[in-house]
Amino acid sequence: MVENTESESRKLLVRLREAMAGDDAGQARLDKITQLIADSMGTEVCSIYLFRDEETLELCATEGLNRESVHQTRMRVGEGLVGRVARTGKVINTPDAPSARGFRYMPETGEERFSSFLGIPIQRLGEMMGVLVVQSKETRDYSADAVYALEVVAMVIAEMTELGAFVGEGSAMSPLHQHSVLLKGITGQEGAAEGHIWLHEPRVVVTNPFADDPHREFERLQEAVDELRVGVDKMLQVSGGNKEQAQVLETYRMFANSKGWMRRMEEDIARGLSAEAAVEKEQSLARGRMAQVQDAYLRERLSDLDDLSNRLLRILTGQGKDTGAELPENPILVARNIGPAELLEYGRKLKGVILEEGSVGSHAAIVARALAIPLVVRVGRITTEGLNGDHVLVDGDHGAVHLRPDDPVVSAFRDKIAMQAQAQERYTSIREKPAVTKDGQTVNLLMNAGLMADLPSLENSGAEGVGLFRTELQFLVRNQMPKRSELVVLYQRVMEAARGKRVVFRTLDIGSDKVLPYMKPQDEPNPALGWRAIRVGLDKPGVMRMQLQALIRAANGGPLTVMFPFVAQFEEYRQARQEVDKTIEREKRLGHVLPSSLEVGAMLETPSLGFAPLRFFEEVDFLSIGGNDLKQFFFAADRENERVRKRYDSLNVSFLSFIERIVERCDISGTPLSFCGEDAGRPIEAVCLAAMGIRTLSMRPASIGPVKSLLLRVDLAELRNIISDARHRGDQTVRPAVMEYLRGL
Length: 745
Ligand code: PEP
Ligand code: MG
Prior knowledge:
There is one protein chain. By secondary structure, the chain is of the alpha/beta class. It folds into four domains: 2-173, 2-Layer Sandwich (Beta-Lactamase), CATH 3.30.450; 181-202 and 323-419, Glucose Oxidase, domain 1 (3-Layer(bba) Sandwich), CATH 3.50.30; 214-317, PtsI, HPr-binding domain (Enzyme I, Chain A, domain 2, Orthogonal Bundle), CATH 1.10.274; 434-611 and 674-743, TIM Barrel (Alpha-Beta Barrel). The strands form three sheets. Strands 15, 16, 17, 18, 19, 20, 21, 22 and 23 form a nine-stranded mixed β-sheet that branches. Strands 7-14-13-9-10-11-12-8 form an eight-stranded mixed β-sheet. Strands 3-2-1-6-5-4 form a six-stranded antiparallel β-sheet. Helix 1 packs antiparallel against helix 2 (26-41), helix 1 (2-21) packs parallel to helix 4 (144-162) and helix 25 (683-691) packs across helix 27 (716-729). The longest helix is centred in the N-terminal third of the chain and has 25 residues, at 214-238. The protein binds phosphoenolpyruvate and magnesium ion. The site of phosphoenolpyruvate (PEP) has 10 residues, from strand 17 and helix 22. Residues 565, 605, 626, 628-629 line the site of magnesium ion (MG).
């Protein structure tokens, strides 16, 4: 039976190929396909429904139903049996369609005469493209082999649809990947950008889904799998002791040696598919499963299989990562996910980044922010919807992506970019001006940095120094722990670029979401409250000492400022300070020149530190409020979790009152205080922080202009009164009152 069906499906595929090879226009091809499927399967009806838009399916060709209903009959996803196949991605096989759940009678097609129904999803790599249906009058249960044969055909149709085989004269069909789509995600980095898609991992295009000689195809598949195995074994050898990487590679190996996986692909080849089409069919199935699996571990394994299939496809088609294609003009990078090092390699060439996965706090997001490139994360379907070179608008402010936008959207967007450019010009004109408010208060504006790419901003932004240098970024973008000598060179370059301006080097702030690829990941129930930052530094002081040594040597007799992250109690600061003193002693003994001056500060990122003994405030050389962390602990709302994070406004009176209290304590003890969380770079938040008494703000370089521009216009004493009134009224947040004041300026 299998033999028979195999030859049937082979025959079907051969005929299909002939139909595709002719010069017919798109519609004629589709019509021919339905005819020959109905003929080969011995059914009265064969129809192809394709997506018109995200929600609507359209009958695009039929043999057996009313011809007039082609391009007229439409249904929503989920509606009727066809809609159900499209929604679930699952086959429906029923001998008695009219009594099946969800059956919808469509008089225009005359389909009530047909009893049996077999609906097969047309999908490619997890992307639903339509539904292939056969129907017949007799009450017939289609055999598993018939279903299988049609699945193969559906896959070929998907492939051909993707290649645009059905587009053309006479086809009223709206081809996929041509209409405009608005995709929603989450803001990773604000800003607007227009450009063209550059796929980080270009799709492999299977141009020839059919093959004449199955034996040749078996051989090709076998050779490719062998090559893949060798490659995976090699990667495993060089992965060293990295457990996570080894785990992924083990999964690769498991699949590469999996008999079931090979057998299924060989069966597909026996039925007339080319080796690459067989691989892609398996990959599609895995993607389909991935969409339905909830279990995180299983999802990851399926995603490993997906990567593995991509590698195999590249070997088979010879389409490497380097396709020889040039970056388009104004490239917008699109990827499922990307590591910080890879993103850095593209650097400032990119105009924007869109990630299908990713998160706001991911390392890639940190890099994108440092590079000031608009970034939208969690944009579902972008890697399947977007094609290389597609026109795209990235709206980082609203976390939205306009793919292949229509003209009105483009012009509105360009207006927005032009307005931003104008504003940027205004900011340039005030670059050299100090930020003095209407009531004569000076606010120092510093920048946050962490990458070499940030350094030119010290000149361009008008920053008076670096208020926060996140040293962990240099650790995160590497595959192995940097050496002390490398760090010395790096820190020297930073200090040189600063040309005497103060740079606050924050020691390694790892843990929580910042996991070094070469360090054993901690399995903690709550990493944000876990072993991170200074806690790691004090428990395992080796790296901290190395870093301190590197900083002292880089200072080379000049001034040095060091800051410890995430200090939660006085004692931690004391211990860290002792480490600094010991390192200074050691360096002295080794004959190294010592810094001309040394400041050792702490970040105030936990509420507990705000209530530390006054003695702490006296001992510490300076404090910087890490508002991002402080806020998440103050409100007990994870900074990475959009759902809870958004509930609590930074201008909430409790939070501002807490800031005010810290300011008061610093005033009493004479401790220099700054604020270096993201809020420092948001103009409205920044002026309110200034009104609470903060006189030093450290922010992304791109924010300095907008913040300064607003500071120049406000009267801090007035603003403070407005905030006090709102507090006395019992407002939850002072935002509405502040906004009203600002509008009146
Ligand atoms: C903060 O927590 O506010 C901060 C500046 O540090 P990071 O964002 O690197 O945790
Ligand atoms: Mg922090």
